[in-house]
Amino acid sequence: MPEYKAPLRDMRFLVDEVFDFHAGYAAMGAVDASPDMVNAILEEGSKFCEQVIAPLNRSGDEEECQFDNGVVTTPKGFKEAFQQFADGGWMSLSVDPTYGGQGLPHSLGLLFSEMIGSSNYAWGMYPGLTQGAMAAIYAHGTEEQKQAYLTRMTAASWTGTMCLTEAHCGTDLGLIKTRAVPQADGSYALTGSKIFISSGEHDMSNNIVHLVLAKLPDAPAGTKGISLFIVPKFLPGADGEAGERNAVSCGSIEHKMGIKGSATCVINFDNAKGFLIGELNKGLNCMFTMMNHARLGTGMQGLCLGETSYQGALKYATERLQMRSLTGAKAPDKSADPIIVHPDVRRMLLTMKAFNEGNRALSYFCAQLLDQLHADTAEQRQEAEDLLAFLTPICKAFMTETGLEVTNHGMQVFGGHGFIREWGMEQLVRDCRIALLYEGTNGIQALDLLGRKVLGSQGKLLRGFTKLVHKFCEANAAHPQLQAQFAQLATLNKEWGDLTTKVGMAAMKNPDEVGAAATDYLMFSGYVVLAYFWLRMAVVAQEKIEAGSGDAAFYQAKLATADFYFKRLLPRTMVHRAGVEAGSESLMQLSAEQFAG
Amino acid sequence: MPEYKAPLRDMRFLVDEVFDFHAGYAAMGAVDASPDMVNAILEEGSKFCEQVIAPLNRSGDEEECQFDNGVVTTPKGFKEAFQQFADGGWMSLSVDPTYGGQGLPHSLGLLFSEMIGSSNYAWGMYPGLTQGAMAAIYAHGTEEQKQAYLTRMTAASWTGTMCLTEAHCGTDLGLIKTRAVPQADGSYALTGSKIFISSGEHDMSNNIVHLVLAKLPDAPAGTKGISLFIVPKFLPGADGEAGERNAVSCGSIEHKMGIKGSATCVINFDNAKGFLIGELNKGLNCMFTMMNHARLGTGMQGLCLGETSYQGALKYATERLQMRSLTGAKAPDKSADPIIVHPDVRRMLLTMKAFNEGNRALSYFCAQLLDQLHADTAEQRQEAEDLLAFLTPICKAFMTETGLEVTNHGMQVFGGHGFIREWGMEQLVRDCRIALLYEGTNGIQALDLLGRKVLGSQGKLLRGFTKLVHKFCEANAAHPQLQAQFAQLATLNKEWGDLTTKVGMAAMKNPDEVGAAATDYLMFSGYVVLAYFWLRMAVVAQEKIEAGSGDAAFYQAKLATADFYFKRLLPRTMVHRAGVEAGSESLMQLSAEQFAG
């Protein structure tokens, strides 16, 4: 298993030097988020991740969760680690102090979650899902609900889930069959079966708070008739603690390709007592509140696992001796050269590095926007909301596609050893693979981006971002070292708009043009977005080198990686542009029978 | 698990209509390989694959091979299936009748192996490795060795292995440490430990014939001191059957990401009795005899698993109801439309179909070349050898890269269900992943193609293929329906040569340019090669339609898929060209320390 070390230097580069989180924190009046405090949290957090949960990653994959007659047992050590997590107050980091939280900025929580995900993604699902449920309760719950549930979840004494999918519907939630019947006491009786419920049943907490999408018997058809309910595994007793068992049970757990330490459950509701949260028939809207956050988190799964894979591959590449460099022996005293001398191995490592660091920059930019959602002025809040709405599907899909590529490169660097489970490299591929599927498949993200966000706003949300890029390019058009890259980015930024107009026009005649273009459009967008962030990093690196502020090797590496990104990865935009321009015709010619050949 | 049906229609399209195997068979004087006989073998072979080994694929993955104190137990049913395989005479298909074979053309054996690989790749490793060992014995063994070993392997009573890799070397075989000490009786005593030995130990045959690379104590350093030895698990007794146990033992088996039903063994030789095969110190050459065949087979792994994945994904896409078509309901009587109506799902299916059918054409073209290796004239044999030398690394790497992409698309079509093991779609990804690593990593294939084959022959081997493409384009430059595609291919064919010249020039100044360009050069080549085969298929399809020879839907689908390939996949050449042209500089800037950030 690669030994994960939190990339604190790179994290601080973004937090301190590129985005200046501290200025934002100061402006928010987040007095506790001083630079020292932030550093202390990252340091302490990294220790928890490296020392407590990372060592459980391989064993968790081998043991998997076990199911026996409704009871789910998590892999050895998971429960104890969660207790340490609770004791350390880690769940409360970004929670409102009213409900027992520390009130630190959301961005800080996201940084911590990156380290958790890199160390042990499966374990991280339990607190992760809990945070999602907490966000929904915080946004839509009554004060009473918040006191009853949120406080206990903040203490990590109770955990949470999101129950959306049923066997016959995932994407198409309008089809759900779970029914909620109003009861005399104001509660609801829920009946139905949900699948793919992460953390749906386990042995790590005293209670599990399910947030369940269901329909009232007389609800409008489709998505407009969906309501959201709190259905706890144990109903809160008179003392507020977990009391009587509710009619909620785990029917089975799934056997999966990866994230095997995460319990993926069938959860059955059999006249279970539930409580409406938010407005009747507005359940999907409530879910969408947290969807952006969850999708950003899922996008980061690509970064998290990509980072660990990179660390493993780099170590192996410097230690494994095989063949000589084509330009002559580099380690003549050894039997062969370390494989990092070979250009093709470097190509893989640099691809990994360029995606990881670029994806990290994109993630942290979004993390800052999460903070800005709580800014003082409506204008600032709206700007953050628009940028997040636009960037979220890109984060989710682009970062997971590239994350999967990165983890596959990491395996490849190991040669045949990459296929052997003990090395841990193949687990990262398997753990990453789900990220392209859940929280809305990447195809759905692409439709969300192109159809709903970009064309649905008549291009406004796109322009909100391209404007940033345009200004940045304009300001640096004469940059002494990076002029060529800025010109390249400016050209792509313009093409992005032109391509959008072209698809928009075509879609007015034929709606299938949106579906035909969506995935390539999203990937095109992702490459341009990352080019923007690579130049933001490069500009800072160049400044630091010129200022002679030390750490020159680090900044030189940033510049070299930016150079690699522009030369070897950004050209992929050409293919995605061709994909967008290819139109729907070549896709729609065949009948279903003809596909069978 | 997707229910595999051998794609006999598509196989016959290539065999009968595109490549006309029968003409070749007739010319070879392979009298038994009449069209009827070929059809009968494909029909019977497909039944064995579909009914006997396909049903063991999922269970084999779940059970894995078990190791207990040197004994390896294969998954339930594997042994019995192998007995049926032996009883059916399937191992003897393409073997020389002198050693008990049926003497059918090699190409026919390859077609059968496609069906085996699609049905149960892990099971297919046992006969597959045996065939590799048989090829080496046939090519380099003495008559006595052939009688002793080959006849029993032909009967599938004994199986074989290839023992190359050691813990510290895979690519760099010059470093091997296994020693062979000459004995008074003319045999050798072998001592050493080999890893990653597929089928190294198991319960399916009476004996296991290891072909082992080792060095004599006084052997020259590096690869020039490697010899090849036959080391049977049981030494042949006076009756020729398996007799006394040799000092060969299985130390452990690997826990792997996929092909879990295939036993991957550590094999220890402890003064084991071995017999030289071929010349002393020419062991690597002997191994390379069968390497081309093995690499072609590994390339086909991408096709095999891609085909099964496609069949599964297509079935799911026609049955799964989710959302409505953007152009209006297509199944208004159902709760939602089958997902095959969505352009983005079709994009995935067509990508799978285009790669599978293109890769199949490439494979069968090579299969024909395998036959041509035994042609009457030296000129024909040389032509086949040159084309195979050139196409083999492309088959191995391009078909496995695209096969992995295909199996990943297949999973993606299933949404979240794709991640669940019961569906069998994720197993295909895992089983495919090894193909990019073993038999020489794809990076090594790329170096072999660009460095050894293309530049090493001063471009001769490349021109051998581009000449075919050129003539074909010239002959069809005015093709009424396919003119545009022919122009596109002709342009790329020319670019291929220009790109090669450019890299060759750069490499003369700096050998790292080869390594920097190799992978992108191979992928560029692969896309052009497949474009050539897609047009060969399209031309035939167009002729058949015009001749009104029936089955128009099949031929229309070929044309539509060719159209898709040219519009949406072939543009990827742009990126790979950019990768080749990017040069080595952006790869070589960073020190090993700087990679760590």
What structural keywords apply?
homodimer; alpha+beta; 20 helices
SSE layout and pairing:
2 copies of one chain form a homodimer.
Chain A lengths: L7 H11 L2 H8 L6 H19 L3 H7 L2 E3 L2 E3 L4 H10 L18 H14 L1 H20 L2 H12 L3 E6 L15 E4 L5 E11 L8 E9 L10 E7 L1 E3 L5 E4 L2 E6 L10 E14 L5 H37 L23 H30 L5 H36 L11 H9 L8 H13 L5 H16 L7 H27 L2 H35 L5 H18 L2 H10 L3 H4 L3 H4 L2
Parallel strand pairs in A: 3-6
Antiparallel strand pairs in A: 1-2, 4-5, 5-11, 6-7, 7-11, 8-9, 10-11
Helix pairs in contact in A: 1-10, 3-6, 6-7, 6-9, 6-10, 7-8, 7-9, 9-10, 9-11, 9-12, 10-11, 10-16, 10-17, 11-12, 11-13, 11-14, 11-16, 13-16, 14-15, 15-16, 15-18, 16-17, 16-18
Shape of chain A: globular
Largest interface (CB within 8 Å) is between: A-B, 101 and 101 residues
Largest sheet of chain A: 7 strands, mixed
Q: How many distinct helices of chain A? A: 20
What share of residues are in beta strands of chain A? 5-15%
Radius of gyration of chain A: 24 Å
The overall average pLDDT of chain A, rounded, is 96
Q: What low-confidence regions of chain A span 5 or more consecutive residues with pLDDT below 50?
A: none
Total strands of chain A: the figure is 11
Structural class of chain A: alpha+beta
Oligomer: homodimer
Cα(first) to Cα(last) distance of chain A is 44 Å
Residues in helices of chain A, as a percent range: 55-70%
